[in-house]
Amino acid sequence: MCPHALIPFKLVNPKTRLSCILNQEERESFARAMLEDVIRAVKDANCSPVIVSTELFDSEDIQVTVKDADLNQTLNSILPQSVGEIMIIMADLPLADAQSIRRVISTKNDIALVPGRGGGTNVIFIKEPQRYHVEYYGTSFLKHVKIAEDAGLSCEVIDSYRLHTDIDEKEDLAELLIHGTGKSRAYLEDLGFVLSVEKGRVGVGRKGA
Amino acid sequence: MCPHALIPFKLVNPKTRLSCILNQEERESFARAMLEDVIRAVKDANCSPVIVSTELFDSEDIQVTVKDADLNQTLNSILPQSVGEIMIIMADLPLADAQSIRRVISTKNDIALVPGRGGGTNVIFIKEPQRYHVEYYGTSFLKHVKIAEDAGLSCEVIDSYRLHTDIDEKEDLAELLIHGTGKSRAYLEDLGFVLSVEKGRVGVGRKGA
User: Fold this and answer.
1) Does the model's pTM come out above 0.90?
2) Gap from A199 CA to chain B (nearest CA, Å)
3) Which helix (H) or strand (E) holds A141?
4) How far is CA B36 from the centre of its chain?
5) What's the gap in Å between the CA of A114 and the closest CA on chain B?
6) Rounded CA gap, A112 and A87, in Å?
7) Best mutation site among B163, B202, B204 for testing chain A: the one with the most A CBs within 10 Å?
8) What is the pLDDT of residues B107-122, one digit of tens each?
9) Burial zone of A39 (CB within 10 Å; 0-12 exposed, 13-18 middle, 19+ buried)
10) Contact residues on chain A for B174, CB-CB shorter than 8 A
């Protein structure tokens, strides 16, 4: 058993909410480093990464290149054709590790979901992909729970902060500097990012900035 | 085996970072509702709640009333006198449930820690309280890992978003409206709080406000 792990990935101008602290080239390198951390975790959990992107890029991993950038359309065209279990995991989860992913894929239910911060869905694991469809954006977590219910599929919610923590905004970088161990943390440190504590609140600063 | 769960609690003017959206009376009621949710989860996991507060208040649960409001001093005076296992759990974790707490207290290590968002420490479980001390504030999670190391105590980090999600700021209320099931969620709804989605981001709004 070696489930495919679909990883949607935006190569060009990703993570625009980090523009206040990273320029476009840095955001592209950072997003790529986070992707590599996710791929590492996926492989460590004995899953096969499949990168779903609008552009082909240098990587030894399997890639699906799609014309259409719409995430839902893309994934909902892949799911009905899939054979065997499928995981969909976001590329901005650099705290993901083999242990947390194993908890997802070892569910006894039909579906496992991991919510992201703010109502998003960071990971979906589907035993019978033909019976499910996705609906990302907004409070997608609640939508994904309901889609499972409507399809008569049992659903487990996996309680993991490592998979809950998506990196979108400046404050999120603190989580990576505290809990990260991979390439994306190293990349931030190379850029001069350090933890800072002001008035009891933990944030990040950039040396020389 | 029925570990005591120390729950530090501030009765008067708590959660000041929610002042933008809740007045003092509402914040006090909300903090009390969150405390009750935590106590419910603690009891469901077969632990005995012990509320640690500067003021006595109406509750059927065991209370320790302390003169000194300093959290570290207070807890570090209690730990050496404790017999048996001790859990310290924050009162602002309304997503806590029996399952997540059971994962904490069933650790095979000497200590279990659950990090909070922003480097805090939301739960500490200590098998031999005489051998440990706490150091809250700032990036206390990293300090608590080091205190365990320095004392030669093995430490497990529990990967739980339910215990990771402390409610401090307005954006955190969305987590409670999405994932909460207890009294504090009901209290927010009674006040007219609803989820709102603007430009793809999920937040909260208050009807009539």
Assistant:
1) yes
2) 9
3) helix A140-150
4) 11
5) 10
6) 9
7) B202
8) 999 999 999 999 999 9
9) buried
10) 118-119
